[in-house]
Amino acid sequence: FIDNIFRFVQAGSEVSTLLGRMPSAVGYQPTLATDMGTLQERIASTSSGSVTSVQAVYVPADDLTDPAPATTFTHLDATTVLSRKIAEQGIYPAVDPLESTSRILEADIVGEEHYQVARSVQETLQKYNELQDIIAILGMDELSDEDKKIVLRARRMQRFLSQPFHVAEKFSGVPGRYVPREETIRGFREIVDGKMDDYPEAAFFNVGGIDEVREKAEKLKEE
Length: 223
Hints:
Bovine Mitochondrial F1-ATPase, ATP Synthase Beta Chain, Chain D, domain3; 2 strands; globular
């Protein structure tokens, strides 16, 4: 576990400055890519064992194109990007599903259904992002019926991506949930297919599987 690898980059930048080297983009050392590659290549699997590395990466000014995080990401199999905007909505874990990546999200690795559902969710959320400016200026009424469906489903997806933590139970009062991967895929499949369009958005927030959404919706009706 590396916490956090940006400190390694900073240390290299300071050493480079002391050595009088000409800085590269944004003031980083000219050997940034080489230094990062040398470190990352030491984390390698062999015939006698394997190493899994989890690395915390500080992103300066939330700019994912900054040379430090961008150089780091090229060596990682998967990235989980935390978003301030999502956290501001009260959605935890505040993971950005569009910025986060995984090299194993391929049909021949995770299965055809998992792959298709994941891509459909990403496509819906991306379209919702593209409609944000129109909604902010003209409002929902100016959208086509198809775009309205996309917005409503995307908002349900965002809330369904929230999850009650076991470690946060004593603070939130909501018991933690563990949801199997198959159950998660089934839940998002039903949202993508429009089977959950009639359920209120509040029912998708901080629940486990899709069946719990239905149960919560019934309780909300009673209230």
